[in-house]
Amino acid sequence: MKKTLLVLSMGATISLFGCAQMAENNNDELFERSGNTINVTDRNELYNDDGIRNGNDSRMTNFGYVRHQKSPVPGDTNNYTNIPTLNRERVADLISKLCTQLPNVNDVATLVTDEEVLIAYDTDTKNRFETADQVKKTALSAVPRYYHVYVADNPRMIREIERYGRLDANSRNIDQIIDTTIKEMLKYPQGRKLSDGENANGEMINEMNDRIDRDFNDGSAKRITPQQTMTK
């Protein structure tokens, strides 16, 4: 009788251990030790932070894939402490570097604010309109879609926007100062309009937040166009 109870007890213990191990393994499939719920194919501790190659490709050609899931525990929220933010200095550096690779563009200064990109550049192009369009679209490819981009092919404007490099969004009267410079830049070619609903600078026409959005095309007022002012 005692031997029978001992065998049954050992069997129950082994069963419970197996169930616990299965539960732990299943839990590991969903949650990493940190408690985050990111899942990727080639994970390197949660996600491909170091750019480990997918197959035989290089880091520059990798696709990016991340999957997030809510915790199944009611009231439990993931603690995201490393949310990416836009580094405006690096974005300005990237835009200037890319623009200097364009034909006939020799010197580029870029200012990135909280909602605008101002680019002044020196060029020896024979088609100012096309060059302005290339510079503008290069900048748009590097910033969030809500940004407006203004360009000026006047090297004297480089010193103008350089003055704002040490300012920030909380500087006194910064909106009025930036707006004055933008109005001056609009006297130069800005390239083609982006779509039927957007002008050349990416400003929406008759958008719902016209009253709070600091742009220069609210769908009503007529503004200066590059065709009207083509001289430096």
Automatic annotation (TrEMBL):
Show the segment(s) annotated as Disordered.
Answer: 210-232
Instruction: Check the UniProt entry and state the signal peptide residues, or none.
Output: 1-20
Supply the PROSITE patterns for this chain. Answer: PROKAR_LIPOPROTEIN (PS51257)
Q: Which domain of life is it from?
A: Bacteria
Compositionally biased region (Basic and acidic residues): 210-221
Which key words tag this protein in UniProt? Signal
- Record-given protein name: Sporulation protein
Recorded source organism is: [Anoxybacillus] calidus
